Amino acid sequence: MTLPVPDSDALAASHALQNLIAAEIARHDGALSFTRFMEMALYAPGLGYYTGGASKLGAAGDFVTAPEISSLFGAALARVAAPIMAQSAPAILEFGAGTGKLARDVLTALAADGVHVDSYAIMELSGELRARQQEALQDFPQVRWLDDFPASFDGVVLANEVLDAMPVALVRKDADGWRELMVTVEEGEFAYLPRAPGDELAAHIARQIPDADLLPDAYLTEVHPVACGFMASLARMFGKGKGAAILLDYGFPAHEYYLDQRIGGTLMCHYRHHAHPEPFYLPGLQDITAHVDFTAMALAAQDAGLEVLAYMNQASFLLGAGIGELLLQRHDPSDLLGYLPQSGALQKLVSPAEMGELFKVLVVGNGVALPDVLVRADRSHRL
Predict the structure, then answer these.
(1) C-alpha atoms less than 13 angstroms from C-alpha of 74 in its C-beta half-sphere
(2) Can you list the residues of the chain whose pLDDT is less than 50?
(3) Cα-flanking dihedrals φ and ψ of residue 287, to 5°?
């Protein structure tokens, strides 16, 4: 594996985080859950990937998200948010707002359509990204930042590529049953240590993995207790109020997630636009993600009292939201220099060979209805 070499300051920060994780392992009798390892690698104060100071997004970072590709993405989301707010409240809460571009694009598109947003709240764990958001959104006085879930909320929740960054548990099917892969230290290096899962994790395995006992030996995969807990927190926040959460991410329904041939799981790391499967490589300097099990997310939402309003691929969602019409409204096809780059960006967002099929959209909520064009595109029966 050949990856770009970090500078000395970045290496020192990673070594500090490695020492912190090793001390945590020692305090837990030599073995730490992968969930906790991933949490520390991503979110340890001042040292984790999302809480440190390095750039995450764009050419100088490690990956590019849909809002960075085109403003049409945010404008399409605005078209869905507006009728939901009309049925609930003129408020938006965004989790993990990246550079702030999605918020800016959504607010700009809503304002152009005469839709006022009283409050646009952002929950962001990354200090570096929060600073970029504050600069990008300084012209929008209704934007504020939160450190925790509000006690109650009516309106629209947006979460683009948030669920995939939530810590997962790694599990493997051995000849004598399922094992949780813990993290230990061997000869100064992090290594896996299989152990029998506790009752709570065993319940997640049984709930999330269809026909778990029929999968082949050595089958490695993830289950998602933290993300399921996030869905339950959304339900508590909405309570008996009205609104909807729109969650966009890459992933599969359970019957596609846990295929026999996906024997190595979906865990992936991103470093300087290189993807690789080694989570122990320079903790704190790379993103660690797993594909989303959308069936598990829908079930967690339902179990907590929310309704599953829609599920579909990103292409169906964006096209149903009118992203093609937005392209033609904003860019004259006869102006090739202006039109072709935006047309290419739209193609990247909706093409099955790009983001259109791998990325899915799950909408859950209370007391609101989606536009008919999205209801017709709903594929929640495939969850």
Answers:
(1) 24
(2) 56-59
(3) -80, 145
